[in-house]
Amino acid sequence: MSSDNHQNGLPSALRRKLLMGMAALPAAALLPKAAFAQAPATSAVNTTGLAVTDTTVRVGILHSVTGTMAISETGSVQAEKLAISQINEMGGVLGRKIEFIQEDGASDWPNFAEKAKKLLVNDKAAAVFGCWTSASRKAVLPVFEQYNGMLYYPTFYEGLEQSKNVIYTGQEATQQILSGIDWVVKEKKAKSFYLLGSDYIWPRTSNKIARKHIEKNSLKVVGEEYFPLGHTQFNSVINKIKLTKPDVIYAIIVGGSNVAFYKQMKAAGIDLSKQTLVTISVTEDEILGIGGENIAGAYACMKYFQSLDNPNNKDFVAAFKKMWGENIVIGDVTQAAYLGPWLWKLTVEKAGSFDIDKVAAASPGIEFGKAPEGYVRIHENHHLWSKTRVGKAKLDGQYEVIYETADLMEPDPFPKGYQ
Amino acid sequence: MFEGYTLAELGSIFAMQGFAGLILFSVFVLMALGLAIIFGQMGVINMAHGEFMILGAYITYFTSNFFLNYLPALFSVYFFVAMILAFVGAGALGMLVEWGMIRHLYRRPLDTLLATWGLSLMLQQFYRSVFGAREVGVELPQWLIGSLPVTDVIEVPINGLFVMALTLLITVAVAVLMYRSRWGKQVRAVMQNRVMAGAVGIDTEKVDRYTFGIGCGIAGVAGSAFTMVGSTGPTSGQLYIVDTFLVVVFGGAQSLLGTIASAFVISQAQSTMEFFLSGSMAKVLTLLAVVGILMLRPQGLFVLKVRR
């Protein structure tokens, strides 16, 4: 950690304490000691037998570092480790240093459940930061509910879920989709859309929401298509796109297919500076594989881009590069993963306890002003209020932020009228 | 779906669609050739075929980086160097694998399936540990990017043409090697009767090693070519393995002609159906058709008649 970051840390920590103090006023009446005590007694902050000592608290990190998903989850692991080391430098949580145990989900969903159980039952982890795909989250959810654990889940996902035991630090589908479509309709005068996606729950649910929103605005969907995961040949659909001439290609293709899709679009002569393409599945991470020259000109709808111009993000990017290397890129999910440990720390300090029930109850209303994406707040439904942004891909593999919503978007995991 | 289009527009769409099918055909042949040699000629079920392809892709990636940094003037031709290196690299690894693992399993073909599957997992993790878990982007020379405009609507992707030419070249080379050379005769002799071939003085071990090496080398070249149209990452090889086996088994494992015919049938069916249906449905129907035909004709489309 750089020394100037440390200096920055002090005043902001003070400010955060003040903010938190105000947010916690009603709670403070019940727990008068928690707000002030530097390191309260272990018996007071841990009544359910979690792995908390007088000087340390144990948490878990549960991502795939081997197998197919390692490609995506590596960034999340790096972000969580960075956040934990920063929190420890500032004195830890309730005066206790965070120790983490890392388990490998190995891209295998039953294995995720197994490891989650190990972290909760054997290691008594006070919180777990992890999972990436919805499939892995669905696999561990019953474990977290049965053994009463706390999971901080970083990925943007399809919504339709809410649990006392999970904090969703990524966007649910409506947060990513609605204002992005509004933007393209307004800015590009778009009238017709061609929806594409990989064939599983997230793209299908997202496109369903997109279609409803498009049709609500009396605009037209001229095609909707799904491809098996790992599909590598897109020439036929590219011909169909050429035939139907949509104003906007709306693409939610993931993994290795992404690379094939953008390379073949470029080879087929579709020029993304003329043909508008909006994606919600390509972050800076994916562009590494696709190559900036193949996707330059496309628009992505995210809440975070590495190029965001604010002091929080500058510090974050600098710290991330210092820890993990100068050439590393940071995508939307990586930033959301970074929020996990911070939100947990703030919640524990507000609750004055590591107990899962108290942390879950204290979560709504937690504010984090130093988030790289800017101010965020936890909603009653355990998702985050956050802004939606549109970025335009550049040749160097970064996005130029060209639009952001004025207000925070409300998370709405069960959107009425979109199901 | 064709209301409101002029005849000329429809004509050009069909022309482009036909071309898309031909590109898919070339891709299928290219990825299946290496496997057809190993599976068809040697009876080894090589589940690590995709990983040999990806080795070729990584070699291409490093060659392009090397040229960018040290020989920028020659960058436009690096792809040819990369393909040769990919052939040599993947072929050498193939021979090593044959020597260390496969040769002990010739009498147990089903075990080769398990062994090579394990090998594929090991190679994936090796790539991940050494080259990193993230995908890498291979930079192409300028002349391989973009398309040739034939008319206003018809545009032909240059890298598609390149893959077609490469496929043609390698297919011809393999055919000559297999059916016109002394070495090919030895390979076929060993395949038909290993003991008798050994008895008449053919060094069967050497023949096996080189056959496996050449099959893997061709996989490496295919992987190198596919950096133009696909992704390069530790697990990218998995994207190709199912289609590859489909083509080889459907064609009749021991026949080069069968491989080509089956690649043609599958690619045309797939690309036509993809145009009229969605991508997932096209895949389902193609697989159903293949399963149906294989039930009626378990030996595949073409079969070699030999007396056992």
TrEMBL record, chain A:
Annotated PROSITE patterns: TAT
High-level lineage: Bacteria, Pseudomonadati, Pseudomonadota, Alphaproteobacteria, Rhodospirillales
Record key words, sorted: Signal
Gene Ontology process terms (BP): amino acid transport
Signal sequence extent: 1-37
Organism: Skermanella aerolata
InterPro entries xref list: ABC_urea-bd_UrtA, Leu_Ile_Val-bd, Peripla_BP_I, TAT_signal
Entry annotated with the keyword Disulfide bond: no
Protein name listed in UniProt: Urea ABC transporter substrate-binding protein
Transcription among keywords: no
Automatic annotation (TrEMBL), chain B:
Gene Ontology biological process terms from the UniProt entry: amino acid transport
Primary residence: membrane
Keyword Transmembrane helix annotated: yes
Signal peptide interval: none
GO molecular function: transmembrane transporter activity
Residues spanning the membrane: 20-40, 52-71, 77-97, 158-179, 212-233, 245-266, 275-296
Alphabetically ordered keywords of this record: Amino-acid transport, Cell membrane, Membrane, Transmembrane, Transmembrane helix, Transport
Subcellular location: Cell membrane
Domain of life assignment: Bacteria
Matches recorded under Pfam families: BPD_transp_2 (PF02653)
GO cellular component, one term: plasma membrane
Topology in membrane: Multi-pass membrane protein
Record keyword Transmembrane present: yes
Family per similarity comment: Belongs to the binding-protein-dependent transport system permease family. LivHM subfamily.
Protein name: Branched-chain amino acid ABC transporter permease
Lineage of the organism: Bacteria, Pseudomonadati, Pseudomonadota, Alphaproteobacteria, Rhodospirillales
